[in-house]
Request: fold
Amino acid sequence: MAADKQRERRVGELPREAGELVGRHSELAQVTQALGAHRVVTLVGVGGVGKTRLAQSVAAQLQPGLSDGAWWVALSGLRDGEVLPHAIAEALPMAHQTAMPVIDALARYLAERNLLLVLDTCEHLTQELRPLVERLVGASPGLRILATSRRPLGLAAEEVLTVEPLPVPGLVKGPGTEPNADALVLLAERAADAMPGFTVTEAGRPDLERLCRQLEGLPLAIELAAARLREVSPGELADRLSDRVSDRFSVLDEAKAEAEAAIGHADPLWHRALRTTIGWSHQLCTPAERLLWARLSVFVGSFDAEGALQVCGDDRLDREEIPQLLAGLTEKSIITWVPTAAGERYRMLDTIREYGEDWLRSLGEGREFRRRHRTWYLRLAREGDAAWMGPDQYIWYERMHAELDNLRLALESCLGSADSRIGLGMAGDLWFLWYACGLAREGRHYLDRALGAFLGPSPLRLKALYAQALVLTELGDLPALEERSAECTALAARFGEAEDSLAKSAAVVTAALRGDAVTVLKLTDELHARHSQSPEAMLSVPGLGSLSVGSHARIAMGMAEDALAGLDEMRRVCDVSGETWMRAWGDSIRAQAELALGRIEAAEHSARASLTVKHRMHDSFGSGMCLESIAQCAIADGQAGRAARLLGLAHQLWDTLGRPQVGIPSWVAAHEDCVSRTRTALGEPAYDRAFQAGYRTDLDAGIAEALNGVVSA
Reply:
């Protein structure tokens, strides 16, 4: 890439807007103006009033003017307030595999950035959000936060703006103008989506306007009603909605409202109108659709068809019918079909989910289907554990990230009850999510909780200790790693060979972090002798780790040729099975061996092969090490400017990982040698300029250039 060509920077990540925003011109201007004057703005209003949709439009409008973009954090599926910092970090393009508290890593990441953070659906997390928002705003003068909630966050510096329903024809008029028709425009647009060719005629307009008035201008109620116009005329629909006495859902709502009014918490009338519309939509569903709606309410975030089949199907709801029922609920706007990298998924709006939860509770099925939800995600964790070391790692990576809200809910269900032993097993089974998929800090949180909740000696505890050892290695926390590894070794004496292999693997990574190459070599040779007897045994983290970490130790001891022999064996095992994640670790270590032997071109080829996988899986530690290797290749090839820029690019990752090169002595020494040689070659001022150019480069763009063999100024 030419030196003077501007890099494309990621300007944020926002959900795709569902069609053009109808109306809200004054609200858009008001919210934009408020964000110019206030650091925290909260959009409040009842469910279904359009807070999220308005926030999307505001963020999209402001995004081009923000050097570090606008970023969306969906919080409706989050139930554990302690995981809130992790959820925010996960939404940002930051590395957070760090031993420091995640809130500190967030504050450090945001400190010098100019961005908008949108926190969507916050009402159930206000207590946890208050101190977090105060900390982040205090740490970053360029940060603005836009929140959506049914109630204010309760911050002193918060600007609260109430989102009202859309203006309704016949009730709101501008001086000398026709009645404001935003509600009518939305109804007509959504009806046209449901029935191509639908138009508003003079003859039909009065019934449509009456319908808008009965729906009180609530966007969600209007969208649900529009989906009904395939089946009934606007006039008939308006008549049915006006007959509130015969609508048993409205009667129940009014009774609830009267009870709440007695204690001062009544919902406004137009909120009850929304529930009336949802209730009427519920009546128009078939009995099977209603039952599926209720049972789907146990999911949070999004879900896929397989999850719906496994959780919701039984003798009352035939699994074979569920795909057709999902299509029917999508057509009726009860659920939304969402294409994702993990395949086709579905999402249910919070207000509609709450109605389903109420219905599930009234059926007496709430506890049973929450249990079935947990059982399904326990099974998914076990299946992921069993399948990870194979050809479908990218598929599992995408799937488990898509299911993260539901996995968190299942873990919470176990760890917050008498089922802590089950939670310990699930946290251990998810080792690959924590260690290989970029969620090390969150993994430490759950593993700490699980290990603290169930103390009895068992293979489950040993596996969780092993998972914790992997996570702590990535976090570079040697004292905690030594403690967990020692317990793992002591516990393994009570069980079999499989558990002993896990304990030895924990001891291997502990010795590697300590820089004890002799112990690493002894333990990895023992593991290799045990696992090399069968291909199945080798295709495991202990089996392949005996080759990768053992080769690392051989390089440190000056035996690079021997290291390459082990890495060749590792590559053969991975290639036969289609495994990519451990193979990428092998390629990363191979780059170090080739460098030690002076084979610069081969070293860079291996480092790029590893970086391709590590970056795709958001492995910040692995990506950082690959960038360091490419920088070492560059300085060895006389490309000092390129080496300095690559070191700056890698430092973006080390800056949030907490401990560069996770403190492994041989890797730290290689880094310092590269920096020293590059500084000497360029001179101090030129080195600093090139380093800062790399540090300021967008990470995705910089890695793409590194993979293409160039990092430009």
Q: What stands out?
A: The longest helix spans residues 366-387. The chain has a mean pLDDT of 87. Residues 472 and 480 are 7 Å apart (CA to CA).
